Amino acid sequence: MFRRKSIITILAAGMVLSSGTVYAQTISAPNAQSDTAFDNKIIKKISADNMYSTIALLSEQPREAGTEGEVRAVKYIEGQFKSLGFETKVIPFPIYDYRTNHVWVKIGGLNIEGAEPRAFSGSVTGNVTAPLLNVGKARLGEVPDEVAGKIALVERGDITFIEKVQNVLDKGAVGVLMYNNSSNGNAFGQAAEGQNIPSVAITREQGLALVEKLKSGSVTATLDVDIEKIEKTSYVVEAKLKPSKNKDTGQIVTVGAHHDSVHGGPGANDDASGVSAVLELARIFAKAPIDTEVRFLTFGSEERGLVGSSFYASQLPKDDVDRMVAHFQMDMIGGRDAGADNPAGGLIMYTIDGQKNLVTDLGAAAGVRTMGVAIPYGQLGRSDHQPFHELGIPSALFIHSPVEPWYHQPTDTIDKISKEKLQQAAEIVGASVYQIARPETPALENSRVAAGIVDYDFEDRPVD
């Protein structure tokens, strides 16, 4: 583990101009007492019991994307937002499951010997017969032109599956037959949307045998892949809390969690805990004075690869993106057994690039005010803060790390939830968001707000 240490001045969100730049106001001395008084308007109203009850309800059944479990959760979340009077919208988007009917590989007209081949995740249906060409690891610039019209024999490793498929596809290959770079079978491989050639995985032993066979002359191969694509629907729930027009700074702050769980998992901590905090903060902010739009979000299909948050980010109007100044993501914030022996129960703020930003600045300062600990930051993707970062919006993931042994298991149940950790995370995020949204910190260059000085560190801490 290594640490980057620096001392910075935390400016309240009034220092963030509509353009997204930071206005560095000079203040002779910090006034943390004033900030704490404003924090109390939020954090004293947070109820861990409310959050625990929400988790209990949501984790009664799995919420896998595209299932009735997700629909049940979405209806509940939507109902809670509507009961608070928010402008609420359920946004559907398509997701896809794939059922493999058969995968056949023939060499010289005979079925390949050994383990049954497997189709890549995302491979298309297709039946092609063509000469086989060994292209090594199919790195960019190393794929020969003569692969056009042929099936590329590719070794796994060095670059991603999708890059390998694209590199041979760009040269005109009609199929991909990839062999492992270790003895760990053939359960691997991924193709992307639009890579419309059959892509199949075989074992290392099978691949090396083909490499040797090609040294003796030409080899004709057949790839026959029959995959059924099944469309389903997943959802994003969006709730907008807007200030009165005469106090509106024009800025937007977003607070999110994902409502889906893994297949067969009740997902009490992952991520009913984050959803419970989103709903609890929505309840409290509904009655708080604000001058900034606060947008509460829950995303479906996070467990499929951030599909819901990526869809949401892709359909945002440019004006909304330009006005978004911060995104706070909460994922797995209630794990009793998470965090190991790290301070603050292991709570950490992860950014995509491993750099500090407005969200981590405010989170660290709020941690000092609410619990006397400057929350560290680290570098990690793997959650729904990533699409917001990619839009240029300061973003961070709040999580207790390393995660608990029940991660992605059927044992991720309500009895593993810590009310203290729920309270802790909700207080820090709530206080941070309110620093931006409270009327005392308008987005004006001449605002006079309190500043706090806090020292917080980078930690190279793995999440699992």
What does this protein look like?
By secondary structure, this protein is an alpha/beta fold. It has two domains: 5-95 and 232-457, Zn peptidases (Aminopeptidase, 3-Layer(aba) Sandwich), CATH 3.40.630.10; 109-218, Glucose Oxidase, domain 1, CATH 3.50.30.30. The protein is 28% helix and 26% strand. The strands form two sheets. Strands 2, 3, 4, 5, 6, 7, 8, 9, 10, 11, 12, 13, 14 and 15 form a 14-stranded mixed sheet that branches. β6 (151-155), α4 and β7 (175-179) form a beta-alpha-beta unit. The radius of gyration is 25 Å and the shape is elongated. The model is unreliable at 1-30 and 444-451 (pLDDT under 50).
Query: What Rg is obtained from the alpha carbons, in whole angstroms?
Result: 25 Å
Task: Give the overall silhouette.
Answer: elongated
User: What's the total helix number?
Assistant: 11
Assess the beta-strand content as a share of residues. 25-35%
Brief digest:
By secondary structure, this protein is of the alpha/beta class.
How are the SSEs ordered, and which strands pair?
Blueprint: E1 5-11, H1 32-43, H2 48-58, H3 68-83, E2 87-107, E3 110-111, E4 118-119, E5 126-134, E6 151-155, H4 161-170, E7 175-179, E8 199-202, H5 204-215, E9 220-241, E10 252-258, H6 268-285, E11 293-299, H7 307-314, H8 318-323, E12 324-330, E13 347-351, H9 358-371, E14 377-379, H10 386-390, E15 395-400, H11 419-437, E16 451-457
Parallel strand pairs: 5-6, 6-7, 7-8, 10-11, 10-12, 12-15, 13-14
Antiparallel strand pairs: 1-16, 2-3, 2-9, 4-8, 5-9, 9-11, 13-15
